[in-house]
TrEMBL record:
It comes from the Bacteria. The keyword Thylakoid does not apply. Keywords: Metal-binding, Oxidoreductase, Zinc. This is Zinc-type alcohol dehydrogenase-like protein. Residues 13-335 form the Enoyl reductase (ER) domain. It holds the Pfam family ADH_N. It comes from Jeotgalibacillus proteolyticus. NCBIfam families: adh_fam_1. GO terms for molecular function: oxidoreductase activity; zinc ion binding. Coiled coil: none annotated. The keyword DNA-binding does not apply. Belongs to the zinc-containing alcohol dehydrogenase family. Quinone oxidoreductase subfamily.
């Protein structure tokens, strides 16, 4: 089967950084389903895994952790899906990714594709939806009951990206006031179109901007990038006994003592944790993806697809990686179909 992979970890400008390959088509066993891949999306994790290092892979390593497709085959222990079902999911970072014609994935981390979306629109959603959902409702323990969140607010730092775009929508459904950071006119417009109540500029000090729009502090802060750069500002802006959640990796250790006087909580969100450790609650990702699909089909959530780059190929994936590494992407970049 066709796939896009790598054997060396190179700068994306190098044409050997991602290459077209042919690999053996896998077979489904256990609780795995084999999915015919129709569309994929690209995330920062792809660029981080592909980043230059000295390692060399004997067999091509396949990236890609956002897939929408059709079940081709189901393992003997499967009970959730059968051949012909349309699905979407983010996969496991411990296994080969989905940038291939067919892909094996444990059915417990797969959801039914929203019926109202095409495959490209659906492929934009899984990883970011899982990340945003787990961050808000699992890590930060925000109630999904909108009545419980009146007068509460959430600051999302880096709100125009894929995770931020979903987090805004989920937070608004939960009844929160949402403040999203954006620094360019096009990202401000995008954040507002997702439903944010206010926008501020993450290149300026956070607290004075929050105070200018009527917030002396915020009980929830979700930081999606540049955590180290924003840490002092986050520590100033978080409310006493508030919760800070982050997903990116700082270059140096954080000074958690800045949160001590406020008894504030700091938590990480890593959406691959359940699949990486095969936790007892792996199936929660199946359940939440189905809830995302229901919300989309009832027009309570919308896809964050921003651009389709064409068919799935090494050339187009290198272009997608370049876009993500520019740190100027809005929403999600998708590729669909092999040629």
């Amino acid at each position: 089967m066709k796939a896009v992979g790598l054997t060396r970890y190179l700068p994306i400008e190098n044409p050997e950084s991602l290459v077209d390959v042919v690999v053996e088509k896998p077979r489904a066993a256990g609780r795995d389903i084999l999915v015919k891949v129709i569309a994929i999306s690209v995330n920062p994790v792809d660029t981080k895994v592909r980043a230059p290092k000295d390692s060399v892979e004997e067999a091509p390593k396949i990236l890609g952790w956002d897939v929408a497709g059709i079940v081709e085959e189901s393992g003997p222990d499967c009970s959730l899906f059968r051949p012909g079902d349309e699905v979407f999911y983010a996969g496991s970072i411990a296994r080969q990714g989905g940038n291939s014609e067919y892909h094996l994935v444990d059915e417990r981390i797969v959801g039914r594709k929203p019926a109202s979306l095409n495959f490209a629109e659906a492929a934009a959603l899984p990883l970011t939806s899982i990340t945003a959902w787990e961050a808000l409702f699992t890590r930060m323990s925000i109630s999904k009951d909108s009545g419980a969140n009146q007068e509460k607010s959430l600051l999302i730092i880096g709100a125009a990206g894929g995770v931020g775009s979903i987090a805004i929508q989920l937070a608004k459904q939960a009844g929160l006031n949402v403040i999203g950071t954006a620094s360019r006119s096009e990202t401000v417009d995008w954040v507002k179109s997702m439903g944010a109540d206010y926008t501020i500029n993450h290149h300026e000090p956070l607290l004075p901007q929050l105070e200018a729009i009527g917030f002396s502090s915020v009980p929830y802060i979700f930081c999606l990038n540049a955590l180290e750069k924003h840490w002092a500002g986050i520590s100033e802006a978080i409310s006493p006994q508030g919760v800070v959640c982050a997903i990116d990796d700082p270059d140096s250790p954080l000074n958690l003592k800045l949160l001590k006087q406020k008894s504030a909580t700091f938590v990480w969100e890593f959406m691959f944790t359940r699949s990486l450790y095969e936790t007892d609650d792996m199936i929660e990702q199946h359940l939440l993806l189905n809830q995302i699909a229901d919300a989309v089909d009832h027009q309570k959530l919308k896809t964050t697809l921003a651009e389709v780059l064409g068919p799935i190929s090494a050339e187009n994936l290198r272009q997608a990686h370049k876009l993500l590494e520019s740190n100027r992407t809005i929403g999600k970049v998708v590729l669909e179909n092999f040629v």
